[in-house]
Structures are given as C-alpha cells and as structure tokens.
Amino acid sequence: MSSTICALATPPGAGGIAVVRVSGPEAYAVVGEIFTPRNPAKRIAEAKGYTAMLGHYHLRGEEMDETIALFFRAPHSYTGEDVIELSVHGGNAMAQGLLEALYLAGAAPAGPGEFTRRALENGRMSLTQAEAVMEIISAEGRQGAALAKSALDGALARRIAGIQAALQTLAAHLTAWIDYPEEDVPEVSQAELIATLSEQRDTLDQLIAGYGAGAVLRRGVDCVLLGRPNVGKSTLLNLLAGFDRAIVTPIAGTTRDVLEQAVMLGDTGIRLNLFDTAGVRDVGEHGDAVEAEGIRRSWKKLEEAGLVLAVFDLAAPLNEEDLEIARRCQGRPALAILNKQDLAGQGEAFTAAQQQLAPYFKAIIPLTARDAASLQPLCQAVAQLLGTANLDPNAAALCSARQLSAAKEARDALAEALNSQEDGFGLDAAGVCISDAQRALARLTGEDATEATIDEVFSTFCVGK
User: Fold this and answer.
1) Which of 119, 267, 319, 447 is the most buried (most CB within 10 A)?
2) How many Cβ atoms sit within 10 Å of the Cβ of residue 91?
3) Are the C-beta atoms of 97 and 56 separated by less than 8 Å?
4) What is the CATH number for 342?
5) Model-level pTM?
C-alpha cells in the first residue's frame, strides 16, 4: 500500500492563504491527529467527499491557526486516493508549521509531481494529460494556457486513440488474412490499405507540424534584435516593453552588452524573450575592445534565437554592414524591420530597401519605433512567421519533445508501410510497419511507457502538483 504524502500546493512565501494537500490511504487518520473541528460534533473520519470543515490545526499540542479542510473521498479525487486539502493563512510560518504537524502525524513529504503521478497510476489521467498539467502551470499567455488545457481535457489522447483504433482494425484484418487463410477471411484491398495508412499518417503530420507553434504559445520564443548602431533597436525594445528598459542616445555603441526583457507581443499570446544586442559594425583591429566583445555576443545570439528582428534605418541607404546582417539572417526565422518610417515614408527609399532585403527575409515591416500604432503589423507578421496565427488553441496538440519524438516515429512507420506497397512488397511488410507505429503511439500515450520515461516526465514537476 502506498504511503500517505503531503506538500504545499501554493507558492511559498507571503500570500492570502497557503494550501497543503494530503493524499493516501491514511489521509483522514493523519489529519484527524492534528485538526480539531470548531463544531465538536464533527468527526474527520466521518467527513463525506466534497464537503468542508472549519477548525484549527495543532502542532505538539499547541493550537496554531484557523484552518479550512476540504475533503475528497477515493476514487473521486485528483489522485484517486483519499485527499484532504488544508487552507491556513499565507506566509511561511503557518504553512511550515502545518507541514511539520503532518510529518509528526505520519505523513511523508511528497516528491516532485507525486500527486499527479498517483493520478496516472490510479487511472485518473493519461500520461499526455499528466504532461499537460505542468504545461498549464507554466503557460505565460491565455492562448498557451488554452492549448495546455485542451491536452489536459484529453483532446490529444482522443486524437491518438482514434489513430490507434484505425490501425488496430487494419492490423487485425491483416493478421487474420495472413495467418488464417483457411478461414476464408476477405483480403484487405490495396485501396483500403493505402487510404487508411494515408489518413492516419496525415493526421500525425498535422500534429507534428503544429508542435512548434504550440511550443511558442506555451513557452515563448527567444527573440534577438539585431542591427547596426543607431538604427533604433533599443527604441524598439522600449516600445515592446512599454517602458524605458534600454538607454537610448545618438552615440553609436551605447548598447555594449546583451539586454534581456520578456514581453507579451500585443494580443498574439506570444511571449518574446527579447535580447537587445550591441550594434554590429566593423570596429577595426584597434577598435574598442568592449564594443567588439558586445558585437561578438550579438552574432552569437543570432545563432541561438528562435526569432530574429533585424532592424534597418529607412532614413539612410543600406550599406555593406546592413547587407552582411541580411545575409546572416537568410534561412532563419527572421523579419526585416525598416525603422524611421516617419522620416522616410514609403517612397523610393522604401522600395530600394525592400528590393535589397527581399531575398533574405520572410517579411519586411516598415514602422516607427517611437509609435505604438506601428506594432500591430509587426505583431501580425510575427504570428504568421511562427505559425500561431491560425492555430486553434482548443485543438489537440503535442506538448512535449517526448510526444513529438514518438509521433514522428509512428508517422515514419506509416510512411514506410505506404512505401512498401508502392515498391510491390506483400501485405505482411505493411503489417510489420503498422506494428511499429502502434508501439510508438503506445509510448506516446503512456500505455507502453517505461518506468524511466515516467520518471523523466515527473522530474520536471513541482513538489505540490
């Protein structure tokens, strides 16, 4: 029988309340040792599920704090076990005192993710739903949270179950036809086989294609601002941040190190982890060593970024340093920002810059970095580039690298099954590939996950969840 565990379920530190969760076969007995109901006629052992009780908790016989107890009876609880949640006044003193009292009464400290792991082991959720728990906790924007909630509600599990059901039906028919020819089982038609394999492969392709955009909504993206000195990078950073995060002066080389600032990009739901870099230019062999190091870091950030906003001065013709920046952005998720539109307009200078930069960038956005109205076209361009513009946050989506790897393995196995038929191999070859896809999908959902895989998933969890 598993032990009874407890942990703080709210963030530590000052707050309105602190909640401690207790779960396990002895949850009611343990809490009964340290909790006294205000109504002397009430008994912890007799408390029904989905009810509450007001009282006090005690530590070493001393009454400590007013406490509200919420009761959940197995199996109708988060973990599937008996669960009690105890709420006391926020702050470290009362919460830590409550935990100490529970330890003395026989509860053990919970490990990272142990409550959710018990929910998984007790059949309260699938592994994909368990992974969505931490995604919804760490989501920065509402769209990312909606995407994680969709997975928590089982949207991904249902989509994968549909694929598994189709493959299971196909595999069973193939096995019966191949292994029991004397039973006069109808042969699987080539058209039916290819149609089923193609449909399920395409479904997996859609899930795989949406992974990157979903990850952006849930976790944000590292975004580097790159450009020559004085093109307006720091001004753009300040506009995106909504306050003066970076020092702005007309002196070239003012920004010498990488400045970091996290911002939510308009109403896109995208969190940009912004990095304002030193203006890149040739400082020469005997130039300022500090500025040269800042420029080296700028190029390094370009290599690491998930999004590049390359800023150019629309009020001046592009020079070789601008074009070197453009060339380094080619093939990357990068947008060209033509700043100082208020000074140059969209006349010949804009047309010339657009023609020079078009081969290197996905889109070119004119704006004025001092004008908040300029941000809307930039927000739309970023959402389009990162694939979040048309992503349905309520749809099924892969939410971890582990799920992505398993989905790719299953998709590749189905593609191989299709290739085997195009190359003239028998139905048994397709059957082997279908079995490979089924095993990969079982690992994705957790049906065939190893203990090591489950340990890895829950190692990322906080203690109280």
Assistant:
1) 119
2) 16
3) no
4) 3.40.50.300
5) 0.71
